[in-house]
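== Polypeptide entry ==
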Amino acid sequence: MNYEREPTTEGGPPLPRGFLVGAVRAGIRPDVDKLDVGILYSEVPCTAAAVYTSNRVKAAPLLVCQEQLADGRAQAVIANSGCANAATGRQGLADARQMADLVAARLGIRPSDVLVASTGVIGTLLPMERIVDAVSRIELSVTSGADFAHAIMTTDTRPKRESGRCGHEGEEYALWAVAKGAGMIHPNMATMLCFIATDAPLARHYLAACLREAVDASFNMIDIDSDTSTNDTVIVLANGLAGGEPIDAGHPAAAAFRSALTGCCVRLARAIVADAEGGTKVIECTVEGAASLADARRAAREVVRSLAVKTAVYGCDPNWGRILAAVGNSGAEMSEQKAVISISAPENGGVCVYRQGAPLPFDEAQARACLAAREVHIHVELGLGEASATAWGSDITEEYVRLNSAYTT
């Protein structure tokens, strides 16, 4: 078995064995009526790994996670929306640590085994009296995955959830994941927040390597608005309750797990782009024939990041010169004389617009039809090597400006 997705039920995708979740409304933002505090818990200690934002401004909960994960183990995560607890000084750090202490006391585990994550407005303090009350009210179960997914949402219009199974020769492991993000998405490690649980028995260093690889191929390849958040965190907990020897690079199931984790993250990353603030389209850019994987990723990422490309896609304007300029601006090795650019859509065919250093005549109506689709595919062939990569982005609309010009009010 490589990876088999599981259907989403009313409560969300099924949880791996030994994991429980729960969420309540704390009223962190009294003007927002939604679930806003959640706990993910394993009945036994887990091998754990995380990847964090590269932003030099790092939120208090992220700093606490780095401290708590120094030993590569954890057993629970508490997450909240409505307040990022970023740029909040010593008080913010004290509040993040208190959140871990509250969960530890409630569950009877070590505070150092509790990870903390927050998302929301930067520069505001958490209403800790509401957090204290919320933790006391959260009931954990195997059926509350949908509640947890909603509790971490801010401007998201829908939860992002993923679940499946992978294995090798009779050994089967479950994966479950949720993510949030719709704005401030130009990750340089991960996305806003993502939590992954698995019952696979993972060796610590192999789990960390698998997560980094998965993040580089997924969350690091998406863009909504060129902003890297202060709180970006991806956490994976592996409790090993599926049994068997710890999976490391030499284990027969290593490749299956690595592939499953990457696929899970790619689907969540695409779901984030599809839910972009004000977005109407998903832009998928595939770069092939690059001199290196790093170059392929640079070029693809720059195309979906470009405001010129985003606005052209929004307006259905086949201004392919913006794509070529973005590739040239990416830092990737390229040659105008070898590059080829095509625009297509799954339901509308495609057109080749540029080849060997010169524009090609093309059907403009066909190109506009491709750009009007919900998914717009851009293909760039560099002709310099064998490496390829895909990135995903959203268009930019007037609605994005409206949402973000009044975010705190």
The chain has a mean pLDDT of 94. The radius of gyration is 22 Å. The domain at 282-405 is CATH 3.10.20.340 (Ubiquitin-like (UB roll)).
